Amino acid sequence: MMTRRTFLGVAATVTAAGGLGLGGTLMQRRRLALAELAAAKGLPSPGTAVVLRGPDGLKLRAVVASVRTAVHPARPGATGTEQTSLLLKVEDREAPGGAYRLESDEVCVDELYFSPVNRPGRDRRLEAVITRIA
To answer: What is the pTM of this model?
Structure first.
């Protein structure tokens, strides 16, 4: 089982690699770090068409269904958290969950993990939840 500290270390490494411009693109899109994502700054708004690209070359077309942010205040002596949920409606009814690069006309976000939130064969939706310590 991955601890929170290990997860944050891995997330920082992925963010640093993305910030160095690894896997660059010719299009002028803003690259977002995980901290910016968690604050929901610059994320595609609901109704925006996006493309998910898997590490194996799988390409999925989707539409942003919702973007929600919830702030959980800190208790005395502890830190608070902020969670952003990005819900996508995918065209492919059998789309698997997994790590995908999110691309739209405005932004490019590397390696977000999307989980399926309903059964295959129905109106397929994938969700990524990003948690930030506030």
So the answer is: 0.67
